What we know:
Layout: E1 6-8, E2 10-11, H1 33-55, E3 68-71, H2 82-86, E4 90-92, E5 103-108, E6 113-117, H3 121-128, E7 140-154, E8 157-168, E9 174-178, E10 201-202, E11 206-210, E12 213-220, E13 231-239, E14 243-252, E15 273-280, E16 289-292
Parallel strand pairs: 4-7, 14-16
Antiparallel strand pairs: 1-13, 2-15, 3-9, 5-6, 5-8, 7-8, 8-9, 10-14, 11-12, 12-15, 13-14
Amino acid sequence: MGRRLWWVAAVAMLAGCAGAPAPGPVGPGETPQADVRQRLRERAGVVLANYQRAVGNRELVVVWGQETTVSGALEPLNEHLKTAIGAGRLEAAGELPATPRRRGEAVWSGGRRLSLPLLPAREALRLLAVDDDCPECVRHPVTGARLTTMRVSTTRGMATVPAWEFSLEDTKARVLRMALDSGPPVRVDPPAGSPDDVPDGAVAESARVDGKRLTVALTGSREGADQPCGEDYVAEAVESDTAVAVLVQVRRYSGPTPEVPPGAAFGCLTVGFPRTATVTLAEPLNGRAVLEVQQGQPVPLR
């Protein structure tokens, strides 16, 4: 099926508001909102193309960095191991188990299942070393491994998958790595340039779906744009056959500056608060990934 794009108008999910306010006047040095939207749309198109190139026809796409987790806390005397473990600088101190069977399953809450080959423990351990930012880290010994399960964030939502749990020398902390062979970790190239090249855009951090209604979570202002220092967030979706890129446009307060005592300056707090924005898709999500447009990465689907 050929690639197709749909431009979908969005409805912001705003506390106490029935809809997004009309665009306010453009202040000195600000970018007109129509220009912001167009630049975000162009970036969304690049994000979709980069994602398609990275994932190909894979059936299981795990959100980057979710293939591995640590169980238990490091003891105070072992805090120095945090960097090595985070970089996957681990090595087997002896033999590790082979696979007890040839295949395993990813299972989603809706009952969908996907069968894939199981990785031997030694191969899963090798795949832990995906971070090249710590060449000085000393490799830490792995003393054993057992097959168990873990939850991972995928582009279809949370799934339960087989996992190897690795025991480490001199600590009770354990490292778990997905044991399914879904291919190399998916790294999606970000769009060229800086995310700051597109002003007035908020970052979608996670998403949830109800039919065609897609709601993204983000960090923003506590108040809406009808209040000083407030902001509204308006989502729009650019859809392809394999993914949905969600751009979130920021609309700021454009009213008069509140009066302050003589000699004082008016300022806004920089503390972020949980906010959401909702968009109605042209088609149900149906297993497609949800992408944020700043870095072009899949976001967790709740």
